Amino acid sequence: MAIIRRLMEDRIRERAYHLWEAEGRPEGRAEAHWALASRLEAESEAELDEMGRESFPASDPPGNTPQTGIGRG
Prior knowledge:
By secondary structure, this protein is an all-alpha fold. It has helices spanning 2-22, 30-59. This is DUF2934 domain-containing protein. It comes from Roseicella frigidaeris.
């Protein structure tokens, strides 16, 4: 679990850095950039989770599909 937390912190740190740069590298806004980056990462994670839940059944092959045209000759 520590590895996952570390990876998430790294993504937040990188996103906060890009936000800071996009704002012209202002002084004293580190906490605001971190909070925004944290929220954006959480939203991205939730969106990916939702996409995974929606696609899960489609990835399973149908269990009861009749095959046609096999064995006919």
